[in-house]
Amino acid sequence: MLIGVRLSDLGRRSRWLLAIASLLFFIALAATFLIPQSVLWMLRAWLLAILFLGAYWLSFLADLRGRLGTWQLALATLFGLLAWILVVAMLLLWPQLLMGA
């Protein structure tokens, strides 16, 4: 249950995005601590995971439009915005993430 919403209430797209985001977060976490890679590679893995998390939250809001209470909508919107703000901040702080370096 997430902010009073069961996973079964979500659409197929939201469940897939959540599964992909969870898998990418696991891979990024494992890469950070277990696999000796360059910092740029790890930042790209985290960026991809956060990007899918932001997509999940947008899909979550679309699936439950009209069924969320005020505080639930505010909390879900906050989480969705934080993910996209983090993506933009990462791209502004490390523009080489988009380059092939």
Note the run of SSEs as H and E.
Answer: HHH
- What integer is the average pLDDT? 80
Largest sheet: none
What percentage of residues falls in helices of 4 or more residues? Answer: over 70%
Tell me the fraction of residues in β-strands, as a range.
under 5%
Q: What is the total number of structural domains?
A: 1
Write down the overall geometry: elongated
Structural class: mainly alpha
Give the termini distance in whole angstroms: 41 Å
- Poorly predicted ranges (pLDDT <50, ≥5 residues)? none
Rounded to the nearest angstrom, the radius of gyration is 15 Å
Number of β-strand runs: 0
Tally of helical segments? 3
Organism: Pseudoluteimonas lycopersici
Protein name: DUF4175 domain-containing protein
Transmembrane segments: 16-35, 41-61, 73-94
Keywords: Membrane, Transmembrane, Transmembrane helix
Structural overview:
It comes from Pseudoluteimonas lycopersici. The chain crosses the membrane at residues 16-35, 41-61, 73-94. This is DUF4175 domain-containing protein. This protein has 101 residues and is mainly α. The chain has one domain (11-97). The chain has three helices and no strands. The protein is elongated, with a radius of gyration of 15 Å.
